[in-house]
Amino acid sequence: MALRSVKTPTLTPPGVVFISSSIINKPQSLRFVSSSLAVRSNLKLKPSPHAAKFRCSASSSASLTPQLRDTLEKLVKSEKVVLFMKGTRDFPMCGFSNTVVQILKTLNVPFEDVNILENEMVRQGLKEYSSWPTFPQLYIGGEFFGGCDITLEAFQSGELQEAVERAMCS
Amino acid sequence: MGVTKEQVEASLTSKLNPVHLEVIDTSGGCGASFAVEIVSEEFEGKRLVERHRIVNAALEEEMKEIHALSIKKAQTPQQWNPTPPQDSSATTTTPTTPTTDA
């Protein structure tokens, strides 16, 4: 996994990064979620029937079991930068998620994208884990960084770049 | 279903006692999407993430119905300071405001 951050070329034209990252990242993020959840807690992955329809908040009473907490902790630390979003980096299904994807792409940051629409358990559990009610949620260096507004503000002030650099160098 | 702008304002006002509060319904009428600007003493000494958490917590009930809450601004009164004090020495030494559009 760490390989990817090394492999993601900083000098490649944007189009190439786009294509290669979509091939490399997407299956991996899915694989990670499914393997860790299925193996670790013997939980079945069932894509929510409402997943594709939308959206957040409404029902949020999933209890965060120790196993789920453990799984989420591994997930948020699986890469230096992990974005939990609606849709994927190539097909964001929400304007706020798209905003954060565009910012990360602009910064040319290697990141893992996790589509929470495909995993209701991660979606509900993470709200509690992060104490944050909505998506997207950006994790940097295993720490919750913020949602869309915070990421945008931090991008404009330069704090995001600093946080990413710190995480990358650690 | 949905939440009104007034409900959001009432909750934020009663819980955070804001100096400045602007709630905009960005949902186009369904009441599921709001943008908020809030200035409150409660944010003093808190990082931005914590400030947003405070706002989210104040709207815990409403968040069940709200799809998107965009917190445009969460500042302390000192940061907000809409009328910056006139500093006569600064204005005379730094001619930053040209009087013509040359």
Automatic annotation (TrEMBL), chain A:
Pfam families assigned to the protein according to its UniProt record, in alphabetical order: Glutaredoxin (PF00462)
Keywords from the UniProt entry: 2Fe-2S, Iron, Iron-sulfur, Metal-binding, Redox-active center
Coiled coil: none
Family matches, as InterPro entries: Glutaredoxin, GRX_PICOT-like, Monothiol_GRX-rel, Thioredoxin-like_sf
KW Cell division (keyword) present: no
Chain ranges of the Glutaredoxin domain: 81-144
Database matches in PROSITE patterns: GLUTAREDOXIN_2
CDD domains linked: GRX_PICOT_like (cd03028)
Keyword Iron-sulfur found: yes
MF term (GO), any: metal ion binding
UniProt cross-references to Gene3D superfamilies, sorted A to Z: Glutaredoxin
Stated family: Belongs to the glutaredoxin family. CGFS subfamily.
Protein's recorded name: Monothiol glutaredoxin-S14, chloroplastic
Organism: Raphanus sativus (Radish)
Gene that encodes the chain: LOC108859355
Automatic annotation (TrEMBL), chain B:
One protein family per Pfam: BolA
Biased composition (Low complexity): 75-102
UniProt GO cellular component terms: cytosol; nucleus
GO terms, molecular function: 2 iron, 2 sulfur cluster binding
UniProt GO BP: intracellular iron ion homeostasis; protein maturation; response to stress
Chain spans, region Disordered: 73-102
Record family assignment: Belongs to the BolA/IbaG family.
PANTHER family named among the record's database cross-references: BOLA-LIKE PROTEIN (PTHR12735:SF43), BOLA-LIKE PROTEIN-RELATED (PTHR12735)
Record's protein name: Protein BOLA2
Protein source organism: Raphanus sativus (Radish)
Gene giving rise to this polypeptide: LOC108823517
